[in-house]
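User:
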Amino acid sequence: MAWRIIAVCLLLVCVAGGASANAAPARRTYVTNDCTGVRVEPRAIMFTCADGNFYARRLAWGSWHRFRAVGEGAIHRNDCEPSCAGGTFHMRRGRVVLTHRRWCDDVHRYLFRRVMIRFRRPLLGDERVSWPLACPL
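Assistant: Predicted structure:
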């Protein structure tokens, strides 16, 4: 009889351990960082996947929580003058805030779906921008 109680207890411990391991992705929030993959606290994020004309590098995260992440880094944006292919990239340091946690069926994870960037000095006339983020391609 004692061995049955021990076996049931071990079974419950294994089931509970497996459930928490499976629940881990649901607790974390990721961001699409390179158009095809997701990460937590990436060093770089590509905001425009079609043309690569807007991205952040050298990101350092001060906080990363389920519903909000805040970091700073170098923001690069193409002026697309006279065209995006012939344009010039400009860089400013800025504060990056990720919000709008949503489920992404493609990767079975929660992702941040909006970024707000406040530049230290205006970048191409903007002091701040807000941009939607997508699930990976």
